[in-house]
Amino acid sequence: MANFNKVILLGNLTRDIELRHTQSGQALAKFGMAINRKFKQGDELKESTCFVDLTAWGRQAEVLSQYVRKGSQLFVEGRLDYQTWESQEGGKRSKLEVVVENFQFVGSGAGRGAGGGDEQAGRRSGGQKPQAGAEGQAGAGNGGGDVDYGDIPF
């Protein structure tokens, strides 16, 4: 039987990223996102918010902590991870979180911290090369560079 564990989220950070390092020196980032959903119930427009805890590792954790802040919009691809532990009182506790496998900055450059930086660094995972066309977009001043619609092949 096949299994599939994939999460795709687009939302806003609910708090600044908490960056730590393991004893072996690997970066670990913990943060939260709020994902809003608008829907119509009868004649009334309603909105609900889902709050999700996320974890990023390695270079992705470092890049996220450098360029996004509370309120920043972020697109995330990842997987669900279920953790269980025993509380200090002896009760069983559990938590479902998303482990970030890939991400992309969304929106304007506001709230990303100072400096240009490499916006495509979040696409790299474990030393992979950036996707084609990623070079030269970082630090363009408008959050992703100018688009020449004549270059689009369709």
Write the layout of secondary structure elements.
Blueprint: E1 7-13, E2 18-21, E3 27-41, E4 44-57, H1 58-67, E5 73-86, E6 92-105
Number of helices: 1
User: Rg, please?
Assistant: 18 Å
Question: If you average the pLDDT, what whole number results?
Answer: 78
Which CATH architecture? Beta Barrel
Shape: globular
* CATH class category: Mainly Beta
String of helices and strands:
EEEEHEE
- Cα end-to-end separation: 39 Å
- Work out the count of structural domains: 1
**Counted beta strands:** 6
Largest sheet: 5 strands, mixed, barrel
Low-confidence stretches: 110-147
Strand content: 35-45%
Q: What is the CATH topology descriptor?
A: OB fold (Dihydrolipoamide Acetyltransferase, E2P)
Approximate helicity band: under 10%
CATH superfamily: Nucleic acid-binding proteins
Order the strands across the largest sheet as they lie in space. 1-3-4-6-5
Alpha-beta content class: mainly beta
